């Protein structure tokens, strides 16, 4: 199993300065630089935890998830970064907790686990009124009774 610090060594050098700038633009949300930098730090931690837990994903907060969305939109870089850290593509499914009551309960249980783990690791809260738990990831577009699709897809192919 990969250690958290080893995973953080991989992501620590990743440059999200353009995401920080974009989030500060008035047309995009007017975030403060402090808020944007904190979201980037938390996103890097989130990815390192996901690597450490062999692909199991916590329920992200809204700020962290916003950085993830910007990373996803930079498609070539996202693919390269995923392969560098995970050896495959990390999928993002935005409807976790919305499929049925069982899925909702799973999301709530994972949210509690996520909050507890984050607090133990970093001595801070993961969720707040301004950055609530998101309806992602840890779910798949599968039918009841089917096995979930893995979150890390080592066979994912892209076009140039």
Describe the protein's topology.
Layout: H1 4-11, H2 17-24, H3 33-52, H4 62-73, H5 75-86, E1 89-90, H6 101-122, E2 152-153
Antiparallel strand pairs: 1-2
Helix pairs in contact: 1-3, 2-3, 3-4
Whole-number average pLDDT? 84
The radius of gyration over CA amounts to 16 Å
- Shape type: globular
Task: Output the number of helix runs.
Answer: 6
Strand pairing plus helix content: what structural class? Answer: mainly alpha
Task: Describe the protein.
There is one protein chain. With 160 residues, the chain is mostly helical. The protein has one domain (4-153). It contains 6 helices and 2 strands; from the N terminus they run αααααβαβ. The chain has a two-stranded antiparallel ribbon. α1 packs across α3 (33-52), α2 (17-24) packs across α3 (33-52) and α3 crosses α4 (62-73). The model is unreliable at 139-150 (pLDDT under 50).
Attribute tags:
160 residues, two-stranded antiparallel ribbon, 2% strand, mainly alpha, single chain, globular
What is this structure, in a nutshell?
With 160 residues, this protein is mainly α. The chain has helices spanning 4-11, 17-24, 33-52, 62-73, 75-86, 101-122; strands at residues 89-90, 152-153.
